[in-house]
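hiii so um. not sure if this is the right channel but i have a protein structure encoded as tokens and i wanna go backwards to a sequence. like what aa goes where. can anyone help
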């Protein structure tokens, strides 16, 4: 068992016999009251957020996880098949492990996957991905001054808002954390 002061953002902990990851962590000292830690946790199994206050001397169990970079090969039903690039071992990971970022995944992308033993806890997509626009309404030449957006379909099937000057066949860069257009790739 470790003290609450030993955790930080991204740490995996066991709280109320549930595996959670620390989303937000703040040390507060309100006026003449005792100091405390305000911690926001996300349950790994069901994704619920838990907000909890801890005293500085409280103990919490830190769970050691192994993070591996694996290559996404293909989708098999509701699972993703990923391969370890060192051992060539293939692992099946559920779509929920990747979460909302699944819509931006393309075959052969490298994912960071956190494991607790053989159980995949969390899969992180690359922060920026380059995808081709497969369908959008024709662009208007020279309309780069306004922030007007139009819907566009990407090669993975995801739909996002893109600027008016982007056409079908263009390759664009997308931030997977927000799902927003960043720039057109030359």
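sure thing!! here u go:
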């Amino acid at each position: 068992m470790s003290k609450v002061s030993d955790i930080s953002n991204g740490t995996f902990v066991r709280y109320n016999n549930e595996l959670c990851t620390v989303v937000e962590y703040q040390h507060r000292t309100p006026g003449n009251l005792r100091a405390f830690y305000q911690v926001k946790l996300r349950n790994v199994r069901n994704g619920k957020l838990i907000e909890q206050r801890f005293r500085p001397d409280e103990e919490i169990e830190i769970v050691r996880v192994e993070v591996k970079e694996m290559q996404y090969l293909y989708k098999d039903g509701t699972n993703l098949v990923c391969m370890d690039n060192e051992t060539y071992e293939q692992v099946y990971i559920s779509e929920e492990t990747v979460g909302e970022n699944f819509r931006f995944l393309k075959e052969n992308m490298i994912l960071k996957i956190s494991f607790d033993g053989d159980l995949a806890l969390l899969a992180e997509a690359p922060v920026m991905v380059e995808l081709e626009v497969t369908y959008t309404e024709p662009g208007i030449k020279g309309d780069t001054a306004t922030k007007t957006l139009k819907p566009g379909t990407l090669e993975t099937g995801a739909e996002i808002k893109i600027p008016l000057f982007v056409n079908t066949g263009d390759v664009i860069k997308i931030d997977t954390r927000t799902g927003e257009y960043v720039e057109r790739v030359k």
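oh and The chain has one helix and 16 strands.
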